[in-house]
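If you are new to this repository, start here. Below is one unmodified record pulled from the training split, so you can see the exact layout before writing a loader.
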Amino acid sequence: MRESWGLDMVLDTILIFLEEQEAALIAIFSTFDVDGDGHLSLQEFIALITSISPPATNAAELGKLTKNTSSVVVVVYYCSI
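And here is the target side for that same chain:
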């Protein structure tokens, strides 16, 4: 019985952590979704990526992202969940 209580406490703590992370991701997404349509345009996505410090990527890598839209779709989908 005690082991179950310990597991429940750990799971509750993890769920609280995940809820806080979700709230933070939604706040970040909302900040960069300038037009409020629930999707990040390429320009909004680039603004998000270039605002990260230290920079997550350089200009050449951002150019590659514009050619590989599947990468953008995956990130935008993840951010919009």
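Two things worth knowing about this chain: The radius of gyration is 17 Å. Residues 69-81 have pLDDT under 50 and may be disordered.
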